[in-house]
Amino acid sequence: MALNVVLAGPRGKMGTEAIKMITNEHLFTLVACIDRKNNGKTLNEINHICENNIPIYVDAKTCFEELKPDIFVDLTIPQIGFEHTKCALEHKIAAVVGTSGFSGEQIDELSILAEQNNTGCIIAPNFALGAVLMMLFSKMAAKYFPDVEIIEKHHDNKIDAPSGTAMKTIEMIKESRKSKTQGHPEEYESIQGSRGGNIDGIRVHSMRLPGLVAHQEVVFGSKSQLLTIKHDSFHRESFMDGLALAMNEVTKLNKLVYGLEQVMDLD
Ligand code: NAP
Question: Structurally, what CATH architecture does the domain formed by 3-123+237-263 represent?
Answer without folding.
Answer: 3-Layer(aba) Sandwich (3.40)
